[in-house]
Amino acid sequence: SIGPRWGAAILLAPRIQRRPSRGSSASRHVMAGVFAKAEEADVGDLFGRQGAQVLPTPVSPAWYAANERSWYGEADIAKMTKKEKQSKELIACSMTVSYAPTARAKCRRCGESIEKGSLRLGYPFRWRACEDAYTLYLHPECYVPEVFGIKEKELRSKVFGFEALNNTERAQLWRKMRGRGREAEASSESKKAADEFAKGTIGPGVDIASLPKVKVPSELVVPMLPFQREGLAWMCNQETTEVRGGILADEMGMGKTIQAISLLLSRRQKGPCLVVVPMAAVLQWVSEIERFTKPGSLRVMVYHGAQKARLATEFKKSDVVITTYQTLETDYRREMDKTRVTCKWCGKLFQPDKLKVHQRYFCGPDAQRTAKQQKTEKKFQDAAKKAMANMGITSGGSSSSSSYSPPTITNIYKDFMKEAGVELKAKGYWGIRKEVAERLQSGPTSGSRGSRGDSGGESLNR
């Protein structure tokens, strides 16, 4: 792919308004032309004379306030009083040099991150005349003499921070500023990229030109363009590799559906082929199969809607089954729900592997949480107590017998029932519901009369 440093190469072809898909022949001719122009202009110049056009124009002349880490231009200085100039301790310079405290800053020229602890250059830039100037950073290797024009004997006066460097660091800085290592690297990468575009492949991919030609299926009623035939040959080749597939990433309108249909016709399978698309593309696929193939070439089924259960029995009668992402997800969840089992302690449904974790750490008499889980639970408890205090909820009822009773539905219900004279001993929402159901079935028990004269059974019913 084209990195930030190659943005200038695209600028060398200003007449190109839209870049076609990389998979097309037209796109390869366009990009080859771009890189050919880059080679004619000497891509190394992108880091020289042409590179000067990439950098935003610095503020000049400029003054740097070290205590504020801010820049001031000539117009700013004219508005200052003598006292303000003295308080800011302004220093006339063109650039700053310092060690990068973090790796967040990016070089304004090549676009790559500046490593933490490495030397970096900074220069002032103002987006608009009414705005304050701020610092843009560069790698020392990305310094452009044509922009700044700093000579070796001017480093002390024009680069703030140069005096703070020792002799070794100064020599290293100047060697990088006048070096052409990044230019040579850029030229090498440019030549490599141009070669890859010329042969129609990027990275460690397959050389499409060397692939055996694949005959266009006779069932296809429309002619295929050269780049579409290349795509068909590539897809057929991918089917024979251990990957058994790939990603066809042509731009919209380049005929990806036609290429996929030609693949279905060229490599027929014993069973149906599943095509999963967004809902908006279902009818498009159906219509394009009917329009681009001879009648009866491919038997198509749309698996969607209320009749899915009936259609599922007819899969083998079809060559292509078209469905949507939502339908696929719904069916997957339905099939996975069949394998879920019930926890004997709380009654909830879990997958077998999840149930083991649930009963080991969270549910049942033998469940024991790890130290980290207990620490997380304590954090939630502290947050609940703080929330209770903010809401003015004081401990009472069942809360008085427990060190932790957050205002959940279950605990509030237990507090109300205790005020009504019914002591519930179960824990958790489902445990409370089970105990209440059992008590209602067994009827009121002795000694469960509350202070208001209501029996336990009447309280439960209420």
Q: Can you describe this structure?
A:
By secondary structure, this protein is α/β, with parallel strands linked by helices. It has helices at 7-11, 25-40, 74-79, 82-88, 145-148, 155-158, 167-178, 181-199, 226-240, 256-266, 282-292, 308-311, 325-337, 352-361, 371-390, 409-419, 429-442, 456-461; strands spanning 62-65, 70-73, 90-92, 95-99, 119-125, 134-138, 159-160, 273-277, 300-302, 320-324, 341-342, 349-350. The strands form 4 sheets. The chain has a 4-stranded mixed β-sheet. Helix 2 packs antiparallel against helix 8 (181-199) and helix 9 packs across helix 10. It starts with 6 loop residues before the first helix and ends with a helix.
- Uncertain runs with pLDDT below 50, 5 residues or more? 1-50, 396-402, 446-455
Order of helices and strands: HHEEHHEEEEHHEHHHHEHEHEHEEHHHHH
Percent helix range = 40-55%
Mean pLDDT: 79
Largest sheet: 4 strands, mixed
Shape: flat
Rg of Cα set: 37 Å
Strand order of the largest sheet: 6-5-4-7
Strand content: 5-15%
Beta-strand segment tally: 12
Number of helices: 18
Structural class: alpha/beta
Q: Kindly, what is the distance between the CA atoms of the first and last residues, rounded to a whole number of angstroms? A: 71 Å
